[in-house]
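Lecture 7 notes: from sequence to structure.

We start with a single chain of 282 residues. Read the sequence below before looking at the structure.
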Amino acid sequence: MNNVLNIDLQSNKYYNLSNDYIFKEVFGNKLLLKYLLKTCFNVSLDTFEFRNVELNKNNKYRYSPIVDFKIETDDTIYLVEMQNRNLYNMSERALFSFSRQCQNSLKPNDNFNNIKKIKILIFLNYRFYEDDNYQILGSNYKSYFSDKFEIKVYDILKRNDNLSKLIKIKSKEELDSLKLNKEESIIREYIKRFNMDSKVLLEIERRENIMYLEEIGLYNAREEGRKEGIEQGIEQGNISGKKEATREIILNLLKHNMSLEDISKVTNYSIEEIKQIEKDRK
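Now the structure, written as tokens:
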């Protein structure tokens, strides 16, 4: 089996800015990122540096959230994230990110007053609450607990500006029909180019397979907890039933042309065992 994912390049699927790969590639350009943050969050940046997006690389905690961009100025850390799926833990993820960044921004024996401001900027691409009348942060208060922490949300589903349309477009024709300014036109050209690049499309497909595994509770499981991760993605039952369900998952991943190595990593099955399952199917 090839170690790359096969993809039908004639597919009708058209990728937009909501795609993880395209979002990062486009706004890895500092000028476009400045435009994005100014337009969507009214955040004006002159100079800043990109930082490692792995928030908590070497820590004893099980979870280590990864954001799309982490940028830093002299006094503020910005965490930028596109959220397409409701994992029902946005608040908890934000609290975790706040706490880790507070700790990481201080040097040994540093004064607490030296904690940098931390702002989380979220592009929300799903309904956060069933009731559309909600606020992430209240604006009717005269004072705040701290000016060090802030969350801003750009609610894509409620917007109808050009950037929200670039996030939601479904086809090249729809993309071409938009009347855009200079920066938005550059973004449009990026989107067009990526949708015509076979290598990019293969990488997008690979990442989408990984996201699928996350949804069924496999990919985030660490080595010592991998069996628990598998159990989240299969129907509860006795041991033989669980093995059968895992076998069906493996067959499904093989059907979608995922490499043997990737399947082995996320299921804790050896390549030989996976080959045997594939052989038994035939």
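Strands lie at 49-51, 69-72, 76-83, 117-124, 149-155. Keep this in mind for problem set 3.
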